[in-house]
Amino acid sequence: MASTAKEWEFTMPKKQIRTEKDLQHFLSSDTHNSFVQFIVSLNESVKGKPLGVECLVTERIQSIVDLLGTLSTWVDEIPPATQQMRYGNTAFRTWQERLANSVIDLSSSVLPENLKDATIELAPYLLESFGNGVRIDYGTGHETNFIAWLYCLSCLGVITEADQYAVVSKVFLAYLGLMRKVQTTYWLEPAGSHGVWGLDDYQFIPFIWGSAQLVGHKHITPKSIHNEEVLLGYSGQYLYLGCVSFVKEVKKGPLQETSPMLTDISAVHNWEKVNNGMIKMYKAEVLSKIPIMQHFLFGSILAFS
């Protein structure tokens, strides 16, 4: 059941983490624990399940999928500019400007009437979910803002426990598809990339939920990422395999050279260990890093104090 606006005093969220002390305050807070638990709950909802499982898709879930579909059509309407540099296509700034001009209406469109006042707090998270128009980059911090937007919708009761599988298999899948389209159209620079020593230059969350999907699978093991037949046959069903396929498509060359970390992880005995390791890595490499979290926003829902 959705909350009512009277239960909240919505506010424009703002950056709060500037120092190591600020970061430690966040890491020891109920907000951090609740945010991680939201990710873990979604992780549990897809454990052992491929993407195609039939599920309830509520009007609210469909409205979020439709929103992401609208953003995808904008990519078609705003072609990349002709320029010498492959990375950092300036047409992305036009796409971002359209987003900035529309983000209030977009955020409002997924809220029931009694929660329209929450738009002021939710819109900034949505705006920060798709990359930076000035730097023309995108990374795990932007992805985390999208998860924060979903978290806020969950706190307000717009997304419920019954929606969790659909949040991953419908909403996040649509977001991931959009961002891959944006990345390969405008060639955004990776924000805070670890280069070859990262999982992926852009995403982290699909490696968490994707490894959860494969827990207990009878035939696909972590080392199966090196099997082309497995990647061709199952990338559309499992986020993790889809990520590996995308990495191989974008980074030309053997996986051992372009993504040694993914290669190392493929030696882990089972998906349960991979999944637990991914959650720990996300907390350490994303939520515990000042260069990422200094841009994170806090308001009345994701509260800093």
From TrEMBL:
Entry-linked InterPro entries: Phstyr_phstse_ac, PTPA_C_lid, PTPA_sf
UniProt catalytic activity: [protein]-peptidylproline (omega=180) = [protein]-peptidylproline (omega=0)
Keywords linked to the UniProt accession: Cytoplasm, Isomerase, Rotamase
GO cellular component, one term: cytoplasm
Principal EC category: isomerase
Major site of localization recorded for this protein: cytoplasm
Gene Ontology MF terms in the entry: peptidyl-prolyl cis-trans isomerase activity; protein tyrosine phosphatase activator activity
Record-listed E.C. numbers: 5.2.1.8
Domain of life of the native organism: Eukaryota
Subcellular location: Cytoplasm
Annotated Pfam families: PTPA
SUPFAM superfamilies per the UniProt record, alphabetical: PTPA-like (SSF140984)
Record bears the keyword Cytoplasm: yes
GO biological process, one term: mitotic spindle organization
Family (UniProt): Belongs to the PTPA-type PPIase family.
Function: PPIases accelerate the folding of proteins. It catalyzes the cis-trans isomerization of proline imidic peptide bonds in oligopeptides.
Protein name: Serine/threonine-protein phosphatase 2A activator
Organism: Cymbomonas tetramitiformis
